[in-house]
Amino acid sequence: MAKLDQTNQKILRELCRDGRVSNLDLADRVGLSPSACLRRVQELERSGVIAGYRAVLDKAKLGVGFVAYVTVGLNRHTKDAQEAFERAIARAPEVTECHNITGAVEYLLRVEAADLGAYKSFHTDILGTLPQVNAITSYVVMGSPKDDRA
Q1: Residues 65 and 38 placed together within one structural domain of the fold
Q2: 107-146 pLDDT per residue, tens
Q3: What radius of gyration, in Å, describes the C-alpha atoms of the chain?
Q4: Same domain, yes or no, for 37 and 71?
Q5: Would 51 be classed as within a structural domain?
Q6: Nearest 5°: phi and psi at 40?
Q7: 40 with 8: CB under 8 angstroms?
Q8: The domain spanning residue 25 has which CATH number?
Q9: Do the beta carbons of residue 105 and residue 73 sit within 8 Å?
Q10: Where in the sequence is the domain holding 98, given as residue range(s)?
Q11: By the 8 A CB rule, do 41 and 107 touch?
Q12: For the whole model, what pTM was predicted?
């Protein structure tokens, strides 16, 4: 793994802010020569610290106006039930994140839909029909003052 000294941490912060920054500008921002900066970025990529680059999309311009976090409890606590649930969720384009969590329920989902009606259809017609699901609780996102996800 690449050494995460202060300079590498600066590089990572800058790349998280703008993954398309040129090497020349990145080097200037972190106080390195372009060749030294490029070597460090390549080492961070080679070692897997930088796993990839993504585009940050404007969801509103894509027609997504509704976001909810949804907790899901399963009726059986077996590996088969979890795997069946995870396969079904993998096919649901509305689910942008699925996390197996600890606590009173098994899963936390991030669900994005065009509007409340589209979310209701997902909730009722997809999530509500899965035989493994015992409990569903929705938390509607009203605003996101901080969201550092890429």
Answers
A1: no
A2: 999 999 999 999 999 999 999 999 999 999 999 999 999 9
A3: 20
A4: no
A5: no
A6: -65, -45
A7: yes
A8: 1.10.10.10
A9: yes
A10: 59-140
A11: no
A12: 0.84
